[in-house]
Amino acid sequence: MPVPSAIELVLTRLAPALPSWRSVAGTNLAFGSIVDPESGTGRILCVVGAKTQALNNLEIVTGTGLGGRALALSRPTSVARYESARGITHHYDHAVRSENLVTAAAVPIVVDGRPRAVVYLCSTAELSLGDRWFDALDPLRRRLQHEILVEDAVHARLAQMATQVPPQSGPGAAELAAVVRELGDLSEELADPAVAARLELIRQRLGGGPSVRRGAVLPDGTQLTRREMQVLVEAARGHTNRQIAEHLGLLPNTVKSYLQDLMRKLGCANRVQAIAYARDAGWIG
Fold this sequence. Notes:
The protein is of the alpha+beta class. The chain has helices at 6-25, 65-73, 93-98, 131-164, 173-189, 193-205, 226-236, 241-248, 252-266, 271-280; strands spanning 29-35, 42-48, 59-60, 77-79, 103-111, 114-123, 216-217, 223-224. 50% of the residues lie in helices and 15% in strands. The strands form two sheets. A six-stranded antiparallel beta sheet has the order 3-2-1-6-5-4, sandwiched between helices. Helix 7 packs across helix 9 (252-266) and helix 7 (226-236) packs across helix 10.
């Protein structure tokens, strides 16, 4: 799997999100600039609602224009009347005039302390952008930042695997188990079902087996936790407590404790009975 560049990675998350930003903001236009991690400059690479091509591929230097100011301050910035606004430079007035924009806001997307993008929301009529307007956008901002953070972790791990494992030899059992466990955790965090499914397939190809994403509720209302179900599934595969501990990143005594708890909840005297109960209930194959 090719590892995307930092810019491509952000673009895959930002572009599909722009229609939602535009809808929540109630503006005519939404566009996004993505920050080059090496130069620190932004470039507008995705636009929704534009009438011209003036904004496409426009380079935004930190500190210049509304977006550059938002990047420099690392916080949202807005102007009610762009043409007469003070406190920002007017390097990009030609593009703004081409779209007849009046009110504009810029929301920086900061991940792990680094600016990665700016979302612009603009209207051809004057709008009053107060705290409630920005508060409505905050869930979108936090979601986008989280998705980029998870994508960073996924692709960093895949890149590390590609460079660390020599073609003639494979990773050790402990390292393989750690990779399987990490891919499972990351796939559950991703909002994109397609990417999550690809990670899950990779995890299974590495020997992880189908993942356990939830616990189970017994007829009496007692609940098995997701972790207890994971331990039970591993036990059903014939693994010892030590092997289960390695696969799930636990201590053997912790695995023993989970098994005792789940057997008590199921009313089973031993793990064989617990596995049979789970199979009869259709929890495991």
